[in-house]
Design brief:
The protein is 21% helix and 32% strand. The protein has three helices and five strands.
Length: 118
């Protein structure tokens, strides 16, 4: 519970990295064609959240199961300190995204309709 958040301080005076990263807040902006963007917010545990799990969460949150494909990217700072969106393609990319998540991991979900099979 949030009320217990202050209890993770070690005798040395600082909280351990694992305790600090217990939960990562995620904010997602979904873009789909000409439709207005949709937003969702939730929290995940980076220790147990893989890219597959995150994709499943997003598919359910935006009701995308089996209907459409999507591309994920996360906000990171480039060399000039500007925000840029980096493709999220692997669990390694997700680990990097979690390290950039201060105070929130910002994701962009671009929905692509599958091409019609003719």
């Amino acid at each position: 519970m949030a009320a217990a958040a202050g209890g993770g301080v070690s005798p040395g005076g600082g909280a351990s990295l694992e305790e600090e990263c217990e939960v990562v807040r995620v904010r997602v902006k979904k873009n789909e064609g000409q439709q207005p963007p949709e937003f969702r917010s939730f929290a995940v545990d980076p220790q147990i959240t893989s890219l597959d799990v995150l994709q499943h969460i997003l598919a359910r949150a935006f009701d995308l199961q089996g209907k459409k494909s999507f591309v994920l990217s996360f906000a990171a700072r480039d060399g000039q300190g500007q925000d840029t969106f980096v493709p999220l393609l692997s669990d390694g990319d997700l680990a990097n995204a979690f390290t950039c998540a201060r105070p929130t991991l910002r994701l962009r979900l671009d929905v692509r309709n599958p091409p019609d099979s003719e």
